[in-house]
Amino acid sequence: MRAAIGIRAHSGWAAVVAAAGDSHGVRVLERQRIAAVDSAGFRANQPYHFVEKLPLDEAQGHLDRCEKTAVRLATAGLESIVKSLGETGHRVVGCGILQASGRPLPELGSILASHAMIHTAEGEFFRDAFARACEQLGIPVSKIRERELFDRASAELRTTGARLKTKVTKLGRELGPPWTQDQKGATLAAWLLLAGEKRRR
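-> structure tokens emitted (201 positions)
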């Protein structure tokens, strides 16, 4: 049985949903919060903020260390989900990771010179960590702009936005909390992959 994973990342962690189904409907198999940092606080959760005033070589060294940790933890968390799904006869066919604007980042010096860019870079940092984790596990990654998610899902699933929101809300009532924007978005990302993958078969 096919399954897909959806991810909505934050600074230091991500909401992860695994789902099965097709364009007609979806059921949630797993909901988890996966940490991508090994300690609390500014240094790990906001690595670009932490290095804002450091010399570039020191800043890059800290970011590289944080990246290794983030990828390692993300990989371990996702691997656990894949293993659990496999035990129930499900094969993961892909992972959808929700994105922001998708604009390429400049070089590190330019990022650290702009507080707004620092926020953007931190978002990309943790999304990229989960993308790399998927790649290490052999899971195809699809990057989906969050602002386009409902429009894309409505078109792909051949329904209206209102009906889609009703379906997603109903899923949350059946499952119980947590069912925030994180889980809703991650579920839709996974659902999109399942619907598209079936049509390609």
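The mean pLDDT is 93.
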